[in-house]
Design brief:
alpha/beta; 5-stranded parallel β-sheet; 7 strands; 14% strand
Amino acid sequence: MEKKRILVVDDEEIVRYSLVNILKAHEYEVEGVPSAEDALKLLYDKTFHLVLTDLILEGMGGLELLENIKVISPRTLVIVITGYGSIKTAVTALRLGVYDYLLKPCDENELILRVHRALEMQSFGKEQKRIQEVGAIAKTTVTLSDRINTPLNIILGNIEMLQILPDLEKNQKVQNTFKVMEEQIFKIKEVMDKLAKLTTAETRKYTALRDYEIIDLTSTKGNE
């Protein structure tokens, strides 16, 4: 099972070190940085499920970091940490799309509870979205299936007619070409059939396609 990746952003080294170690102790994959600028550099290169950031930072502040995260990695959740004097700012952050906020000093149990809840909600949301997307693909494919299979059947019929023509029947090279064409057409029909019957699907993540998953049609799950 993939470990959840969390990025901690806090310019106070002791606080940052403490948060990183608490989260690591609960088996999260965690990195810590002292500034929003450093956080953005990491977010351009890596995918994080959650960013835990202080609102008051040297240089770029927490709210500006949030706005950038929404552009760079919109699926990443953000929890902000704030002092009692910045609760109004935390409320503003919630309106801008922050998932939750914590007051300093953070209670360890409360921190883990909020982080776990956020990641659990994120996983549920992703799964629901994936189910909706797969369902949409299935409905679309059922609609297109007849339109695609009809011309494929016509092509197959014409290939069969050409195969028995006296001038071509004994030409092995041409017959081999017809055979390859038939095999490829049947592969297309097989993929269309799997998509049309799709209700659930296994997916694979590819490094080059960040934040996206590819439906694995080699799997028989949901197609039987």
